Amino acid sequence: MIYQLYPQVAHPYRYELNKDMHIAAAHFIPHEAAGSCANVHGHTYVVNVTVAGDELDESGFLVNFQMLKKLIHGKLDHTLLNDHTDWFDRHDPNRFPTTEVVARTIYETIQRYLDTLPHKPKCLQVFVRETPTSYVIYRPKVGER
Ligand SMILES: Nc1nc2c(c(=O)[nH]1)N=C([C@H](O)[C@H](O)COP(=O)(O)OP(=O)(O)OP(=O)(O)O)CN2
Ligand SMILES: [Zn+2]
């Protein structure tokens, strides 16, 4: 159970929802600057996703919480992140499985799904905590949301 307060994002929308997920996964950062993190090791990632919009769908949902979980937890939980070559690439630093890239790629995955919905909700923030002392927030630029 996660009951954590996350940084707020200011927005003009009527509805905002947040979905928390715990993801147990391993990774390694394929670069010498990562030091010991270049070796395979594991985390329980704590992820919070913020979605907003003005309209609900025919179910009364902004977006189904279960769909957000399926898209992210369903793909990554109990996996080696580096194996997801559609998300990560050992030859491109913008696609190494760092906390920054994990947060951005979660955003991209969710927004791609939201873009298929007729009422067009927006993902405004993705919070990813990799360790008790390290987290990243990814937010799209104002013109993208
Ligand atoms: N900007 C980033 N720096 C580091 C990342 C990252 O994704 N982005 N990742 C790592 C390692 O993967 C590591 O798992 C996490 O690093 P760190 O916060 O140093 O973990 P510790 O638990 O050892 O932190 P302490 O505060 O020292 O206990 C490294 N850097
Ligand atoms: Zn790590």
TrEMBL record:
Pathway the protein contributes to: Purine metabolism; 7-cyano-7-deazaguanine biosynthesis
Active site positions: 37 (proton acceptor), 78 (charge relay system), 130 (charge relay system)
Residues reported in the UniProt entry to bind Zn(2+): 27, 41, 43
Pfam families found in the cross-reference section: PTPS
Reaction(s) this enzyme catalyzes, per UniProt: 7,8-dihydroneopterin 3'-triphosphate + H2O = 6-carboxy-5,6,7,8-tetrahydropterin + triphosphate + acetaldehyde + 2 H(+)
Record-linked NCBIfam families: queuosine_QueD
Homology family: Belongs to the PTPS family. QueD subfamily.
Entry protein name: 6-carboxy-5,6,7,8-tetrahydropterin synthase
